[in-house]
Amino acid sequence: MAQHPSYVRLDAADNVVTATRHLDVGTVVEGITIKAPISSGHKVAAGAIPNGDEIRKYAQIIGYASRRIAPGDHVHTHNTEFRNTDMDYEFGTDLRPTDMVAEEARDTFMGYRRGNGRTGTRNFIAVVTSVNCSATAARRIADAFGPDELADFPNVDGVVAFVHGTGCGMQGDGDGFEALQRVMWGYARHPNHAGVLMVGLGCEMNQIDWLLEAYGLEHGPLFQTMNIQNVAGLQRTIDLGIERVRAMLPLANEATRTPCPASELMVALQCGGSDAWSGITANPALGHACDLLVAQGGTGVLAETPEIYGAEHLLTRRAASREIGERLVGLVRWWEDYTARNKGSMDNNPSPGNKKGGLTTILEKSLGAAAKGGTTPLAGVYKYAEQVTARGFTFMDSPGYDPASVTGQIASGCNLVCFTTGRGSAFGSKPAPTVKVATNSEMYARMKDDMDINAGDILTGKATVDQKGREIYKLFLEVASGATSKSEAQGLGDHEFVPWQIGAVM
Question: Residue 407: its pLDDT value, please?
């Protein structure tokens, strides 16, 4: 990256540069006079771009000129068009060896070791619904356990209701049903849950008993199920649910934090409310933090398949095997078909806020978003909410909608979430806590109560990507050990459970 007082050029092959401050008419950029005001984060043509020619940033194609673009012109949605990608994929051609930290020298955090060998960063009791019809019951059960009721159980972080808007009016097999069942199993057996109560209505398509049979779940003191119809009504279900959770509390409180290796961390790599700085500051810094975590034997999970569109070829080059790389390409092809048959476009994303922040096409957004995955080999590619079993850098299929994506990552086993944002975000999650990283100093100052780290220091030269990445990694260990993140302090996470609804509602 070549940095100047008023702009940055990310690669010598680029034909656009990015303004680091508001540029007035008459400002000179690389010997070119600006002809119209350019907002910070927006792109300026560094030379003439003929109609139909490629527009390049990050040394990659981010779009095509929809008309002739003159030197010094603002390059954005008014003169840039999107085209679907058509690439010859390479597999495993950019494999960089990971300098693994010796097991005896690995960093540690204070976590909860579970009987099944997994490790938690929080200690919740979950009330999980099978269908929207049991949502009210679940919320009222959880609401019965406020600070006063939990005062005698200091090792319990809370009782949380995970409710959603689906579970019936759906096909009893196929992608949508299987995804919902994977989410339910992932939350039922998440290492951040000490106890689980599953609540259904009784007649829904998404039967709790089917889940128990399919995944081998067994009832016990810390795993209970109930249906409103069997219990004989809403209020009796609420009363019985409160009774069952109350019985779980002393058992859940027996869990205590002990030293655990950093290799037990699985971090969801997420971004939302992105801007032009996301791919320049916060995302590369998170990518470096991911590299540090992988070197410790830990796992990073990238997601949001539509938001790696146009950058997936960079990930296939890092695939540890051709099979892994082809699995990623298969997901991309599924999304192309999915959007086409629903009369949509892969370029429906970026959002209006992303565009206001300087992002023009999904190709540009994806190139910045993929930076969250760092540089280590791609060790595995997974379905939405599928259990991630590989160590290292991995990918999980999901939509770009943040709550749905994070729900899948948590269900896949992530016990921590790191969320970068440029426009600002009020996102938080349970049972895995969210750490938020601001891409720019202006937004960080404005939303300081929501942001844990400011990566805008990179743009001002006060920090490097590596330094900020190490700061993020250290915060992983602190929050995993019980330190409160900004989103946790504001009580976020109770309403951000959103399973991806795939398929027809019938």
Answer: 98
Crossing angle between the packed helical segments 175-188 and 208-215, to the nearest 10 degrees: 80
- From 351, 346, 400, 348, select the one nearest 372 (Cα to Cα): 400
Judged by DSSP in three states, 2 sits in strand
Q: Who contacts 291 (Cβ-Cβ below 8 Å, separation ≥6)?
A: 98, 374, 375, 376, 469
At residue 31, the pLDDT reads 86
- Rounded Cα distance between 81 and 266, Å, is 38
CB 291 within 8 A of CB 375: yes
Residue ranges, the chain, pLDDT below 70: 2
C-alpha to C-alpha distance for 423 and 35, rounded to whole angstroms: 26
Pull the structure tokens for residue 488. 């946790």
Residue type, 452: D
**Distance from C-alpha of 103 to C-alpha of 296, rounded to nearest angstrom:** 8
Ramachandran bin of 92, using left for φ above 0, alpha for ψ from -120 to 50, beta for the remaining angles:
left
* Residue 296 to residues 209, 387, 469, Cα–Cα distance (Å): 39, 20, 14
Q: What is the pLDDT of residue 98?
A: 93
Angle between helices 135-143 and 234-253 in degrees, nearest 10: 50
β partners of residue 57:
60
What the block records as the tokens of 62 is: 């981010």
**189-220 residues labelled b (16+ CB within 10 A) or e (exposed):** bbbbbbbbbbbbbbebbbbbeebbeeeebeee
In the prediction, which pLDDT does 2 show?
67
Give yes or no for a contact between 477 and 417, defined as CB atoms under 8 angstroms apart: no
Distances (CA, A) of 144 to 157, 196, 221, 285, 431: 14, 16, 19, 41, 18
Q: Is the dihedral of CA 376, 378, 384, 385 positive or negative?
A: negative
HEC states along 195-256? EEEEEECCCCCCCHHHHHHHHCCCCECCEEEEEHHHHCCHHHHHHHHHHHHHHHHHHHHCCC
Spatial separation of the C-alpha atoms in residues 429 and 435, rounded to whole Å: 10
pLDDT of residue 127: 98
Tell me how far apart the alpha carbons of residues 392 and 384 are, in angstroms, rounded to a whole number: 18
CA 151 to chain centre: 32
DSSP secondary structure code for residue 346 in this structure: G
> Within 13 Å and on the Cβ side, how many CA atoms surround 373?
30
